[in-house]
Amino acid sequence: MILRFIYCGKIDLDQLAGSDILNLLIAVNEINIQRLIDYIQEYMIKNKDNYVQQNSIEILEKIHQNNAFVVLQNICIKKICEDTQILLSKFNSLSASLLELILNRDDLPLDEIVIWDNLIRWAQHDLNISQVPDPAQWKNDKKTNMENMERTIHRFIPLIRFCHISPENFTNNVYPFREIMPNNLVNSLVQFNMTRNQQFNNDRRPPRSNIDSVIIDQNHIAVFANWIYRKDKFYGYIPYRFNLLYRASRDSNTAAVFHNKCDNKGATLVIVKIANSNQIVGGYSPLSWDISGARKFTNDSFVFSFANRDDLQNARVGYCNSDSHSIYCCSLNGPVFGRGSDLGYYNGVWYCHENFSYPDVGIPLKVFNMDDYEVFQVVSN
User: Fold this and answer.
1) 347 and 309 in one domain?
2) What are phi and psi of 215, to 5 degrees?
3) Quick one: how many helices (H) and strands (E) in the chain?
4) 270-291 residue pLDDT tens
């Protein structure tokens, strides 16, 4: 088959199983036919999607250390991030090098404590030692087992984002394994979890997230969590999930579709990208949207503005004052914040007529067009 491609420039993969095509790809790489390598990768992605989906881990084990297969590698990682059960169901079988690659990802949408728990089980499985959750209950060779686990897990400790593990989970799931961690790290974590009011070891890594957005990334999520939680700086575990309900460019930019997808969903975050600028504005309400025609009040709603969405430090937020009109629910409008429409949507455009129910945070006092807007349901973990 390879010879036919060399002499005729043609190859037929339609009759081959996914595993055979993968083996062919590896064989082609050994003789370095780059054009055929690229073709086979693209063929697998377009025509063997089910095989790639079901065997992402097995494929990565064979190709992740070879840069020639980066296209297929990225697709496999994308599928894992979209469906983390693919990873969790085969976690114990991962090679150390592949596990390290995966734990370096920012877009792996797993709670950090889930990653830690699976890492511990992975090491215990690899060493064939007790998988009792609390090592204090290990009956035999505890010291030896801990020493072996420390050697096995040492390379992965810097990849764990401990500042995004809740104090309760730290106490119950991490601290019992303190003997496999550096003493200075354990001491810092104990102090951090007692106070939660200072940056942990200058670790500014955001929580892992595969946020479904064309406007923001996981760094913005940490800022929004601060504001919802009403903290100036929130360095620890982020207790919310942000689930995309609506995107104007995807779902149709109408009030009717907004209400169809976003009504009666509880707390929501609205994010608007202003056209011809890098500014994003929006608002948060813990109250549900609906079409009742009612004006609703809460002290916990807010509006915000990032004059430059890439500059998180200068973002501005303003909470609802004592006015009774935090949000306005109407079938003809999309989201509306405030009595005088401090920020609102009507008939395809956004507007800010006055700062009445919320303080001025830098939202343009005018009618303005948008590139897109998104609405996320905010769910407490």
Assistant:
1) yes
2) -115, -40
3) 15, 12
4) 999 999 999 999 999 999 999 9
